[in-house]
Specification:
about 675 residues; alpha+beta; 21 helices; about 15% strand
């Protein structure tokens, strides 16, 4: 994904997000929105042209200002000043000139929509209603309807711009240029041209453009771009540094380990870009509804105009045409077509501001309905920062036990194994390990100096029929057992720290009447101890990845809405299975982040509650808008058909309701979660 000056274009419309992950090609429709080629057959005509979002507010409103001034002057000439020359063709031309700045773009959209097969678009409705008003001599009302419609569209565009601002700020997190060290020279390169293995010099205050590993002994970084946390994060030589992190103190050297397009931040941006392609069921329903609703309204308007001719004695065509035109203006589905996607888009924006990435509006609806939250332990509720608390060696020296175990665990990425490697320091690096084999959910096996070494949890020992001290099963800490040549040789006791906000997260979920369940591969004693401390409803330990899948499948079979929260590679299958898969994305595995529907950037468990809260509030606002639009339109439609409403009531029922719905939709971005 290329980062360039066309960032604004990537979000040029709220409905404009590429669907094809590999090419990111966009096809521009005549209405200014863009869609993927998959949508090219959709000619519903209900996409909105929000205009150029790059222009200033004055420039955007200039056509409407010109039209408004000419309309007001025309009304003054008609009703107050009444000059003798303001009549006949002069009066008609005056109102035509007032109409063109706002009406011409809509007429053009209507014609282009018809050419593409989308006859019954809102552009068509507005065009025939306003042109019809001119046809029966209601010039001022014709101008007013189009003017207020255009102003409504502009307010919608501004609302969309505001809704996008929280998401678009992510696009500024990744610099275009990197200072690469070549020999004794520093050369500035486009970040997309920097290759794996090159060394970037990062000065204090500079932002890293690509993922890499730290070559300097120590450095401190602001990780807010990725985690939402501005708290400084100290890194040591060899540790991973991610694109978007800002160097806070001394000069740092970073060796590039990932291409620009594959960096974690790039993937997060890609997720955000693709978010609005996954529409919520309510959105999809409204789109389908509008396709059926609009032609019905057009035919009803024709009926209102012509059918009374058969039954009304004093039928006057001009009067009934006026009623039909009012009916058309009122019936325009703007309020629904505008406010519902905007409500969901606002929800995604509010979530982004809170460090939560929804990969589509459909998941806002899913989160609003969640009844059970299932969580992994390590890295989700605990920090995943393990430290060796105790080493017990039996029949072998403690030094050999530590070195053998560290040499085996160095072949794994599991945080428990990393704790042992860190504990051993560099004393294991001379040891040669052969035939390393991973036993999923249990541990590792390998050969050192002809000795078969098995390292893992108690399940591995049982699997290999190796006797060990069974009291270890009841220790409420993580235990790693070691066997040499099928004989128990000792163990490591390793402790993990519970996250500061984990208890608050569980309490918040319980307040929402949501059941909490803990699933972990760790031994049952550890899992039960964590569950008891956090007041989690149910806890299951000693689970393999497939066991977690079975547990969640059993819950789903009972027709309850389940969210699963995890961070490790082994969580990816169950995250994919759950109604809502949530990944701890700060330093979670790429596989899990890609599989998840929702990514929590700062790894805070309390964000699970926040995500559910945002989902519920978004759905509430969307249904408020649906109710408002239908009720007001129905009342004024009946009044219009009965001749009790004028064009001015029609303007309120259409543009007024749309504006109210927009204002309601953007409320979510001002809320604190």
């Amino acid at each position: 994904m290329k980062h360039s000056d066309n960032q604004e274009d990537q979000y040029n419309e709220e409905c404009c997000t590429p669907k094809k992950k590999t090419t990111h090609k966009k096809t521009h429709t005549t209405s200014g929105c863009c869609s993927s080629e998959e949508d090219s057959e959709d000619h519903s005509g209900h996409d909105h042209d929000h205009g150029e979002t790059n222009g200033s507010t004055i420039q955007l409103f200039l056509p409407s200002i010109i039209s408004f001034v000419l309309l007001i002057v025309g009304l003054l000439f008609d009703h107050i000043i009444v000059p003798s020359w303001f009549k006949d063709w002069i009066r008609i031309i005056w109102y035509i000139v007032a109409y063109l700045p706002v009406g011409l773009p809509v007429l053009k959209e209507a014609i282009q929509s018809i050419r593409k097969g989308g006859i019954f678009s809102e552009f068509f409705l507005m065009s025939i209603a306003t042109v019809g008003a001119f046809g029966i001599g209601q010039y001022a009302e014709g101008v007013a309807v189009m003017l207020f419609y255009s102003i409504g569209e502009l307010f919608q565009m501004l609302a969309v711009r505001k809704a996008k601002s929280n998401i678009k700020s992510l696009l500024d997190q990744r610099p275009d240029v990197a200072n690469v060290l070549e020999g004794n020279k520093i050369i500035s390169k486009q970040a997309s041209e920097v290759t794996i293995g090159e060394i970037i010099e990062l000065k204090p205050g500079e932002k890293l453009a690509l993922d890499g590993k730290l070559l300097s002994d120590h450095a401190t970084f602001n990780t807010a771009a990725l985690t939402g946390e501005s708290k400084p994060d100290s890194k040591s030589k060899g540790e991973t540094i991610l694109a978007g992190m800002i160097n806070l103190n001394a000069l740092a050297l970073v060796e590039v380990t990932t291409e620009f397009k594959d960096s974690k931040l790039s993937k997060i941006l890609e997720m955000v870009q693709e978010a609005s392609t996954k529409k919520a069921p309510t959105e999809l329903f409204i789109r389908k509804f509008a396709k059926i609703y609009t032609p019905i309204i057009v035919y009803l308007a024709i009926g209102i105009c012509l059918i009374p001719m058969l039954f009304v004695d004093d039928y006057i065509f001009k009067d009934w045409l006026y009623r039909a035109l009012i009916f058309l203006v009122i019936s325009c589905p703007c309020a629904l077509v505008i406010s519902i996607p905007l409500g969901y888009f606002g929800g995604i924006g509010a979530a982004s501001k809170n460090g939560i990435l929804f990969k589509g509006s459909t998941f806002l609806d899913v989160m609003a309905a969640i009844q059970v939250v299932v969580m992994d332990k390590t890295g989700t509720l605990t920090k995943g920062v393990f430290k060796v608390q105790k080493v017990v060696a039996i029949g072998v020296s403690e030094t050999d036990l530590v070195q053998y175990t560290a040499a085996i665990e160095a072949k794994s990425t599991h945080p428990v194994g990393s704790a042992i490697v860190q504990y051993a320091k560099d004393n294991y690096k001379e040891i040669v390990v052969a035939d390393v084999k991973e036993i999923p959910g249990m541990g590792l096996k390998g050969v050192i100096d002809g000795k078969e070494i098995a390292v893992g949890n108690p399940k591995l020992m049982k699997e290999l029929n190796i006797n060990y001290d069974l009291e270890l099963d009841s220790i409420p800490y993580t235990t790693i057992l070691v066997a040499i040549n099928q004989k128990y040789a000792g163990h490591f006791i390793i402790a993990d720290e519970i996250k500061e906000d984990a208890k608050t997260a569980i309490e918040s979920l319980h307040k929402l009447k949501i059941k909490t369940i803990l699933l972990s591969g760790d031994n049952q004693a550890v899992v039960s101890a964590v569950a008891k401390e956090l007041n989690i409803d149910e806890a299951f330990g000693n689970l393999l990845p497939e066991n977690k899948v079975e547990k969640v499948e059993a819950m789903l079979s009972r027709k309850v809405k389940v969210a699963f929260v995890g961070d490790g590679v082994n969580d990816a299958p169950v995250i994919a299975l759950a109604d809502a898969g949530i990944a701890m994305g700060g330093l979670g595995s790429d596989a899990t982040i890609e599989t998840a529907d929702i990514v929590i950037q700062n790894d805070q468990p309390t964000k699970i509650f926040t995500a559910i809260n945002i989902g519920r509030k978004t759905k509430q606002i969307v249904w408020q808008n649906i109710t408002l639009a239908f009720v007001v339109k129905l009342v004024v439609l009946i009044m219009g058909a009965g001749g009790l409403a004028t064009m001015w009531e029609a303007v309120f029922a259409d543009v007024g309701v749309a504006l109210l719905a927009i204002l309601n939709a953007v409320r979510i971005q001002r809320m604190k979660f």
